[in-house]
């Protein structure tokens, strides 16, 4: 949760200032309409601060997301020997997963593009957590990985940063190209659904719908073999080439 706060502190500072100003306004001599507006602003800012941070705490600090037991289901039936881990500028998981999973050959690809990923939160994340030394900078649609060489492609809460459907489809196309027969993509993402709207308000528009994700991987010639939730807010998709 503290990491989320560090990356997005201007939003929370703005919400805190709105809360302070609207609470102060509620006690001033104002018209009924203005007092109602102040009350509504205070309620919205309070909801944003405490609900979004509370849900972030549940997801990132209390759930199984970073305890990794769900990886047993994701890798059910296989012991991967060659793994690609993809991120979009912020990698807090690849080294931990290397230690958790059986020994394997890992490729860590950083798809960060400063010309397209200019959101301040991403830039702050990158400054605070620079790529590991073995990370390879890679376009999302041209990976420096041999065709048919990988058992698994892992992407955790990262690929939604490609804002266009064409970009996400191209990413899935590269993942498919790199997979061996019997390989799989493990994709964990928030999706644009009611649970994420209730938790993050308009911020849920930063995520993509389940239908949109499915359309992207199907256009790349892939299909889902499994889907499950880690908390109500994060879904895991296991995606494979057709048999």
CA-atom Rg in angstroms: 20 Å
Number of strands: 7
Q: What oligomeric state do the depicted chains represent? A: single chain
How large is the share of residues in beta strands? 15-25%
The strands making up the biggest β-sheet line up spatially as 3-2-1-4-5-7-6
Walk me through what this model shows.
The mean pLDDT is 90. Strand 2, helix 6 (120-128) and strand 3 (136-137) form a beta-alpha-beta unit. The protein has helices at 2-7, 9-26, 32-62, 71-74, 94-100, 120-128, 165-178, 194-200, 210-219; strands spanning 82-87, 105-110, 136-137, 150-156, 179-189, 223-230, 234-240. It is α/β, with parallel strands linked by helices and 243 residues long. It is elongated and about 70 Å long.
Protein traits:
44% helix, seven-stranded mixed beta sheet, 243 residues, alpha/beta, elongated, 9 helices, single chain
List the helices and strands and how they pair.
Layout lengths: L1 H6 L1 H18 L5 H31 L8 H4 L7 E6 L6 H7 L4 E6 L9 H9 L7 E2 L12 E7 L8 H14 E11 L4 H7 L9 H10 L3 E8 L3 E7 L3
Parallel strand pairs: 1-2, 1-4, 2-3, 4-5
Antiparallel strand pairs: 5-7, 6-7
Brief digest:
Helix content is 44%, strand content 19%. The chain has 9 helices and 7 strands, in the order ααααβαβαββαβααββ. The longest helix has 31 residues, at 32-62.
């Amino acid at each position: 949760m503290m990491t989320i706060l560090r990356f997005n502190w201007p939003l929370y500072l703005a919400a805190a200032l709105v809360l302070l100003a609207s609470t102060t306004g509620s006690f001033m001599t104002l018209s009924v309409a203005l007092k109602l507006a102040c009350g509504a602003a205070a309620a919205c800012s309070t909801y944003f601060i405490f609900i979004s941070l509370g849900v972030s705490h549940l997801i990132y600090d209390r759930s199984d997301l970073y305890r990794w037991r769900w990886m047993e289901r994701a890798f059910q039936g296989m012991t991967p020997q060659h793994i690609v881990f993809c991120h979009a500028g912020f990698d807090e998981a690849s080294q931990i997963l290397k230690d958790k999973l059986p020994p394997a050959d890992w490729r860590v690809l950083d798809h960060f593009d400063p010309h397209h990923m200019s959101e301040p939160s991403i830039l702050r994340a990158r400054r605070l957590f620079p790529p590991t030394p073995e990370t390879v900078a890679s376009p999302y649609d041209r990976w420096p990985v041999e065709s048919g060489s990988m058992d698994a492609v892992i992407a955790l809460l990262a690929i939604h940063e490609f804002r266009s459907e064409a970009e996400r489809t191209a990413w899935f196309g590269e993942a498919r190209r790199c997979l061996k027969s019997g390989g799989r993509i493990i994709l964990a993402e928030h999706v644009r659904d009611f649970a994420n709207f209730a938790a993050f308000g308009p911020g849920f528009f930063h995520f993509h719908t389940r239908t949109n994700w499915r359309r992207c991987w199907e256009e790349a010639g892939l299909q889902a073999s499994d889907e499950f939730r880690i908390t109500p807010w994060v879904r895991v998709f296991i995606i494979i080439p057709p048999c």
